[in-house]
Amino acid sequence: MRVRKLSVIFALTLFVAGCSSQNRSSIEIEMYNPAGDALGTAKLSEENDSVAIKLSLTGLSPGLHGIHVHEYPVCEGPDFKSAGNHLNPDNKEHGAMNPKGTHLGDMPNVEADSSGKVNAELAVQGATLMDGKMSLLKDEGTSLVIHEGVDDGLTQPAGDAGDRIACGVIQLEEAAEKNPPSDPSEDGGEEEKE
């Protein structure tokens, strides 16, 4: 009888745990400009040893733009500095061309076409949507930030990519409900110069 009770308790524990956890295999986030206008979406999905990101955006200036995962799930305008620095759990230097790099949040530049559209697929190598040190959902999440200019892949601390022109919060729905997005037109905090 005791074994049966323990089995029932164990089964109920697993059921409750399964109900309270969200599917982390994919997440879709909205991207906004500093004025709070929606630019499109980024779809994140768990892959082997990376998180794939599929961008579908409009309203950017034509050309190449730096894109990074930043450390905080906050996108407050007008400068999105509230997103913090690049996600860097291993305390490395910035840049794909840097032998001491890269930050976990570093990615290749994306290109907006002549009409300002971006349809691109990227990967955050070494990242995960699951729990752990390399999670994009650590604590209450992170953010995806697009910059005005090109990330040169080397300049410290952030690639000399210029102002932050688009931002989207990467977090689970339950965290978003606890911390609704701020008005993107509000002033943000201070951080390192891009």
UniProtKB/TrEMBL annotation:
Residues 184-194 have a biased composition (Acidic residues). CDD domains: Cu-Zn_Superoxide_Dismutase. InterPro entries: SOD-like_Cu/Zn_dom_sf, SOD_Cu/Zn_/chaperone, SOD_Cu/Zn_BS, SOD_Cu_Zn_dom. It catalyses: 2 superoxide + 2 H(+) = H2O2 + O2. Coiled coil: none annotated. GO terms for molecular function: copper ion binding; superoxide dismutase activity. The keyword Glycoprotein does not apply. Residues 173-194 are annotated as: Disordered. It comes from the Bacteria. Its EC number is 1.15.1.1. It is an enzyme of class 1 (oxidoreductase). SUPFAM superfamilies: Cu,Zn superoxide dismutase-like. Keywords: Copper, Metal-binding, Oxidoreductase, Signal, Zinc. Destroys radicals which are normally produced within the cells and which are toxic to biological systems. May play a role in favoring mycobacterial survival in phagocytes. PANTHER family: SUPEROXIDE DISMUTASE CU-ZN -RELATED. This is Superoxide dismutase [Cu-Zn]. It comes from Pontibacillus chungwhensis BH030062.
